[in-house]
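Hi, here's the filled form for the chain we discussed.

Project: internal
Contact: R.S.
Residues: 233
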Amino acid sequence: MEKLAYLLWKPEAASGDALRDQLLGSTAAAVLAAGALKLQLDVADSAVAPAAPMRMMNTRPLPDALATFWLHSHLDRKPIEKALGAAAPRISGYLVAESEPIPNVKQRARDGERTPGYAQIALIQRPPRIDPEHWLQIWQGSHTAVAKETQSTFRYVQNAVVRPLTYGAPGFDAIVEECFPAAAMTSQHAFYDALGNDAKLDSNRGRMLESTARFIDFDRIDVIPMSEYVVKS
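And the returned structure, exactly as it came back:
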């Protein structure tokens, strides 16, 4: 099986909630009918409005949704691209290699329902100063442990981009999915797993920023709060 990830941009006049409703309705039905073995939809809807200060924008405009799904072969993707394209005027698809350092075992929802808390989607471009092999070693070989130790994440998925699948797709090297408790939308203490502890907040935040600076340039990353909907697990 192969995992595919598609970024979606909503119609200019549509709301995030309208895009969510369409994706969870007719679009999801069409994607599953076209052969997707698993399907997850992340959408920047009104439920994550409190997390707006967490957004980081270097790609303009930012995508409004992320569809991830599994197929026996990426060669079978065309009917799914057609279904996604009917909901979003712009889509960018990628073949990715998934690693899941933190599976969600604490905050699972029934298929089709919103995962509690919120998802933070990060779109990362490798700094040119770091060769691909070394970059992956830093990110997955040593940074992963720091991220797990310093944040309140209850789900952490690393999608290394193998190659783009659609013409003109932005040159992202990684698509990261992280899920946090709802309180983390407005509280740094909650985000960095340091409720009621200023010293732990400073330590965890400092460790995280120091680690990410080793392999991320902050003008080459986008961060988008979204709601996560596992349509078919």
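Let me know if anything looks off before we file it.
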